[in-house]
Specification:
230 residues; alpha/beta; Metallo-beta-lactamase, Chain A; 7-stranded mixed β-sheet; 16 strands; globular
Length: 230
């Protein structure tokens, strides 16, 4: 399994027979070099979305159409796009599990917000979510944008993820200290990868507090387009 950071909260995850583009914000992402675009999307089989904010949906519609691959996510948003944009979609909801090329992807709760921009202001677009992604002998907890929440207790116990991809930039989500607290209290991760940081000065620029808060856990500060093999 390879996990490749594309900057901010965008990832390329190669697992089982799937290549998942997670929250693919490439165009305009200050962390992502446009010269790497072809390599980042090569062989992609699905687009997986956590919520509808612009720094997460990013290039979703253009990629779905040019690559002819389905968009996977909360039913409300996906069904809206299927009707309005003509994309192929796999819409489901929290507690549901879908098979994406042999990877079992379960939608779980997150604590954030989700909306699409519009001329008359933001419009609700379903709700925010995280995912448990099981395959290749691992379970990844992809937190999406969230704060600490009590649901993490049963999620950690029930799904037993060994890898955490955690938002940790602060301001819009939990910060490094809060992410470390959540990981230590509710999960038994072997590996943690922070995201949603370094993109803008407003966000945290270092994972030092996360590393200090998780002794004994492999905390990997990702580098854009450098695969992490697990």
């Amino acid at each position: 399994m390879n996990i490749t950071w594309l900057g901010h909260s965008s990832f390329r995850i190669e697992i089982e027979n799937a290549v998942l583009l997670v929250d693919p914000w490439l165009t305009g992402n200050p962390m992502f070099p446009e010269t790497d675009r072809a390599a980042a999307i090569d062989g992609a089989t699905h687009i997986l979305l956590t919520h509808a904010h612009g720094d997460h949906i990013g290039d979703t519609l253009s990629l779905a159409k040019t690559l002819s691959i389905p968009v996977v996510g909360i039913y409300d948003l996906i069904s809206f796009w299927e009707n309005s944009e003509g994309i192929s979609g796999i819409g489901f909801n929290k507690g549901g599990t879908v098979d994406l090329g042999g990877a079992k992807v379960t939608m779980v709760n997150a604590c954030h917000s989700s909306s699409l921009g519009g001329a008359q202001g933001p419009a609700a677009a379903g709700s925010e979510a995280g995912y448990m992604i099981a395959g290749d002998g691992h379970v990844i907890y992809l937190s999406g944008d969230t704060d600490i929440m009590a649901d993490m207790a049963w999620m950690g116990e029930y799904h037993a993820p060994d890898i955490g991809i955690l938002c940790a930039g602060g301001h819009f989500t939990m910060d490094m200290k809060r992410a470390a607290f959540a990981a230590a209290k509710y999960f038994n991760f072997k590996t943690v990868i922070p995201c949603h940081y370094r993109t803008f000065p407003l966000l945290e620029q270092s994972a030092e507090a996360l590393i200090k808060g998780l002794p004994g856990v492999q905390v990997i500060e990702p580098e854009v387009m450098r695969p992490i093999k697990l």
